[in-house]
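so my prof wants the structure for this chain in the tokens format not the other one, which i didnt know existed until like an hour ago. anyway here's the sequence
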Amino acid sequence: MPQHSQQQQSQQQSQSNMTLDDMMMHNFIQRFVAVGRSFFTPPQQEQIVDLGDGLELRYGFYQSAILGWKPFLNVDVAHKGFPKPENLIKVIRDQNATIGDRVFDKELDNWQKESLQKYIGGLKVEYEIPNQPDSKRTYKVNRVLGSSINQRFDLVEKVGDAQRTKNISVGQYLHQYKNFRLRYPNMPCLHVGPSQRNIFLCTIAKGQALAKKLNENQTASMVRSAAQPADVRKRKILEAIRMADFNSDPCVRDFGISIADRFTPVSGRILNPPVLLYDKEEKRPLKAVWRAGKFLKGTSLRNWCILNLDFRTREDSLMKFAREMEKIGREVGVSIHPQPNIKHLVIKPSARKEEIVKELEVYKDFGAELIVVVIPDNGETYGRVKQAAELVVGILTQCVKAKTIYRLSVATVSNILLKVNSKLNGVNHTIGGPEEPMVLKRPVMIVGADVTHPSPDQNHIPSVAAVAASHVPKAFQYNMLWRLQPARKEIIEDLENIMRKQLLFFLKRTNHKPEKIFFYRDGVSEGQFSQFKLLDFGIELLPWLRCSLIIFQSTCWNFAIAFAVVAYFSFFTLNQRLYNCYLVSTLNFGKYVKF
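here's what i got, hopefully its the right format
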């Protein structure tokens, strides 16, 4: 089929999907809070889950139409954080819980204002002077300003036939002209609306979905609440279908569409887990769980350091951690020196990345092979450490939360050593037994590619494209290359140069050219699935196929490539177990030959 015909077919299918989606939303879009393709209702009192820091969890459902060999409606449960509809005075008190009501004694400092701005910026608030219902207004918050004492504006007054301009504070205006005295005059005003309006006495409007990234504690609470047994999840999906009541919508009926009230049965099989080869033993996982044996290829760690960035973690706890690393390391085949260099460094929440860079550079000059960094349980320290270590200094790090140091167990230390051994170019285990893919017995490159996008409120942060490619026969070790690119752009812009480097790296490490390349492309949304297969394949892959033929200057290089776009689905078995599966749409393009 000609390329333009394929593109036209892809566009028609995409438009058909959008039309079906719009039709299925018609009946209930006014009854729910819509967030993309997900829909939420206010929780019942017994269902309210506090996520912390001003957010509560709402349950809903996700729905989208799929045109496969026949039309399907994909429905799943959805979870979302919503700001609590509460007065901003309570929000400020909760954000500064360590000092309680003392926060109202003076104006907020810059750090406290920034924290409030991160939470309330972009949200809608309701403004109302007590006992004056006619004053109620709803505005969108732009930014946090100074206190009502210091925030002043010019008020134009009429004096007879003349006008007089008077500079007055917000607090004075409310007292003199609205007959209301503020109880907390040190608290900030808000800049709201399209024009400059400074308001006080605000309550967060209800029914707003948070279009921002959850913090660490909120994410943990969300995961705990969303993790449910398969039978509960299945029941909630069926309840969502009944609540949506698609078949009662005249618009749906007019198009001759009806939605079944049960799941579509499909035939399938569950593959046996592969045998994992360790040093002189084999392990077969049972229900995705197994205990690691002695690593197939252990490494040695002689010069390592512990950098403690948590003020609560003491020296004796760190020494105990070092002894456990050495002890468990001997059992799994990793030789670790029992006495690392330990340094304590207190990092403030507002600390810049440069402070960590300076400390890491000292360790690099010292010849450290690995730095174990103990980070606080909360905050953004992890991101700053990884940026400093991997983007600036160029040194290996292993971050460990402070609470992990206090709750050491054999399993925890073993899991840490899995990462440490891999980072030091060791081999933990490989696939063996009858399940070992025959394709791994020949020179094969397995490639995984994804693009990570910033959250909706992060407008000035770029997307990150990453491509990992195997370069050893058993496909255990991968070389990773990443690029920054414009925000929310799904196509990997520099894939040609990335794959050129990956192919050269493979050739250098194996002294062979790959006979087959399996390219797994993740991160493509359901709406883009058909488009990506037909159109974006050419944009992403053909340039580096061209460059790869130039790299390998041989009279004939035969290789096969399979390009797989990965989508995510859930399946319920008849015994009510849940399997989260990856549906792989594969395009096999046979052999490309250079003459």
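also thought this was worth mentioning. Residues 3-25 form the longest helix (23 residues).
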